[in-house]
Amino acid sequence: MVVAVDGPAAAGKGTLARRLAAELGLPHLDTGLLYRATGRRVLDAGGDPRDPAIAEAAARALLPADLARGDLRGPEADAASSAVAAIPAVRAALLDWQREFGRRHGAVLDGRDIGTVVFPDAPVKLFVTASAEERARRRFRELQARGVAADPAQVLAELQARDAQDSRRAVAPLVPAADAVVLDTSDLDADAAFAAALRVVRARFGG
């Protein structure tokens, strides 16, 4: 069983995917962490995340421990992640890693191209979204909770820039798979979003 959960930043897909994985007894993989960790490796080395050669080398050197770092969130990490994710060689380097994770025992994977590229034949595909304003409010609250100083207007601008880069990139752009169920969480809390997603999963698997 593979469940693909895609969507833009701060739509709630990570929280939803973790809860689905726990409910279904499946491993969970936040594939965005792969790109965040790659971007962080490039920054640590003083490199430019937009440099294809440097970014690909960082992706191929990625270790499981890199995904557990505590500095993979925030504006700098967001920008670096989006930059490396636009590089075809980086996506190719990380594709097999993601597919092997899902094939091993089944999984719930969340990201931006799970249903379109990583597992195009996944039996369940969800595209989780929300308005840019609502997502920016969520991201701002998240930053506040972590004690990170942030300006609401800047958070919205950065999120919109990230959306534009992710949706317009030439390789694996952020778009719903043709057979994905679109779940707009703008007016849903986490429990309501989870209930809606679980109904979709159970309908597909007849459980």
Number of strands: 5
Shape assignment: globular
For the record, the CATH architecture stands as: 3-Layer(aba) Sandwich
Number of helices: 9
The CATH superfamily is identified as P-loop containing nucleotide triphosphate hydrolases
Average pLDDT confidence is: 93
Strand order of the largest sheet: 2-3-1-4-5
Order of SSEs: EHEHHHHEHEHHEH
| CATH fold category name | Rossmann fold
Main pleated-sheet profile: 5 strands, parallel
The parts where pLDDT drops under 50 for at least 5 residues are none
Binned, the helix content reads 55-70%
Output the radius of gyration: 16 Å
Q: Strand content of the residues, in percent?
A: 5-15%
Structural class: alpha/beta
Q: How many discrete domains?
A: 1
End-to-end span in angstroms? Answer: 12 Å
* CATH class type: Alpha Beta
How would you portray this structure in words?
This protein has one domain: Rossmann fold. The protein has nine helices and five strands, in the order E-H-E-H-H-H-H-E-H-E-H-H-E-H. The chain has helices at 13-24, 32-44, 52-60, 75-85, 88-105, 114-118, 132-145, 152-168, 190-205, and strands spanning 2-6, 28-30, 107-111, 124-129, 181-184. The longest helix is centred in the middle third of the chain and has 18 residues, at 88-105. The two termini are 12 Å apart. Its EC number is 2.7.4.25.
